[in-house]
Amino acid sequence: MPFGDGAQLRDVYRRMKREGYAFIASNVAEPNVLLGLLEGAEASRADLLVQISYGAMGFAGAGDAWAGLRALSSYLRAVSECYSIGIFLNLDHQQEKHLDLVERAIAARIPSSIMIDASHEPFERNVAITRKVVEMAHPRGILVEGELGIIKGAEEDVVSDEAFYTDPDDAVEFVERTGVDLLAISIGTEHGVSKGRTLTLRLDLARRVNEALREAGYDIPLVIHGSSGLSTEQLRELIRCGVCKINRDTFYQYLYTCTAYDFYRQRHESIVPPEGVRFDPETFESSNDWTPDKKAFDPRAVGKEIQRAVKEALMRFNEEIGSAGRSLFASGSGSGSGSSPS
Q1: pLDDT value at position 157?
Q2: Rounded-to-integer distance, Cα 232 and Cα 303, Å
Q3: Which residues of the chain have pLDDT under 50?
Q4: Using an 8 Å Cβ cutoff, are 44 and 85 in contact?
Q5: Catalytic positions, written as ranges
Q6: CA separation for the pair 338, 342 (Å, rounded)
Q7: How far apart are CA 38 and CA 85, in angstroms?
Q8: Is residue 284 domain-resident?
Q9: Residue 89 is inside which H or E element, if any?
Q10: What is the rounded average pLDDT for all residues in the chain?
Q11: Which tens digit of pLDDT belongs to each residue from 120-164?
Q12: How many domains does the chain have?
């Protein structure tokens, strides 16, 4: 289907909250992961939320974040027409210093939603910055995700050596004063490489935040950042606590590297000349009859393997968290097609 807007994304979140399932919100910086995600979501009949961080924009734009955002979002819009599922774009971890870019993106109606991260600021400053983005985005029908509490680890250039958990009462005040559509909370997850079994996951706190917001009339989706490393049961417990968006980035980075490493390691003899053989990579001349195999070093070959690995991973995640078969847009999908986490 054509690229989804904020109103359609809101409908998806409402159903997720009502029926108890979630997005695996997946970060991308280049086409191979993106294509694997699209294939995986289509195969499992689940809607897809793609995320682009400021750093990914700069990478894709040769240092120019605005150029990178336009390039990646245009690519996503073009290829989304080949799929039947709902496909949405979230600008991930935007900061106050990125507001000029955020404003341009809103004016161009590029994203379906925006995550503004002022969680490292004092409460009042966080409210003011987040509210400013809401006032820019809502008139264009774009959803806004705010964050309250600080998650341990590094995300882009924001680094914290310790976590500061989200307070339920503060969460109600924050949502009331900012008007955000989603709230990212800190309950013990970590950005970067972390092991779920070693985390102290405050499910009780997530439950209290969700209940406090609902009782105050703000039954909005909760968001968990830093989910790479969490087990299936931990993810299911989070969804039962009102979480509808589970961010995942580090996992895909590691999967990408391992897949490429295994691919080239298995084809070492087809790419690297044998010891003692002189080889000129410009002329393909060698001191014997050895020559590299183009099927092994063509970037499209390893790219297809990366896409396949990402596809299979997302399909597995969608089954585990109950979003498989629940696309709001794909024909043949519906509330009876998937199963909520239990």
Answers
A1: 57
A2: 28
A3: 152-155, 158-162, 191-198, 335-338
A4: no
A5: 92
A6: 12
A7: 9
A8: no
A9: strand 87-94
A10: 90
A11: 899 999 999 999 999 999 999 999 999 998 664 434 554 433 457
A12: 1
Do residues 223 and 184 make contact, with C-beta atoms less than 8 angstroms apart? yes
Distances (CA, A) of 94 to 75, 81, 133, 275: 21, 27, 10, 49
How many angstroms separate the CA atoms of 247 and 239, rounded? Answer: 13
Residue 237 belongs to domain with CATH number: 3.20.20.70
Residues 87-98 as b/e (b if ≥16 CB within 10 A, e otherwise) read bbbbbbbbbbeb
CA distance 49 to 121: 27
Write out pLDDT tens, residues 270-292.
Answer: 999 999 999 999 999 999 989 99
The alpha carbon torsion through 208, 210, 215, 218 (nearest 10 deg) reads 150
pLDDT digits (tens, 9 = 90+) for 227-259: 777 889 989 999 999 999 999 998 999 999 999
Query: Does residue 298 lie in a domain region?
Result: no
Give domain status of residue 225, yes or no. yes
Max distance between CA atoms of the chain, in angstroms, equals: 77
Angle at 119 between CA 150 and CA 71, to 5 degrees: 110
Range of the domain at 81: 6-257+311-320
Cβ–Cβ under 8 Å, residues 177 and 202 = no
Tokens at 319, concatenated: 């089954």
| Structure tokens belonging to residue 210 | 């969700």
Q: Is residue 328 part of a domain?
A: no
Per-residue pLDDT, 164: 75
93: left (phi over 0), alpha (psi -120 to 50) or beta: left
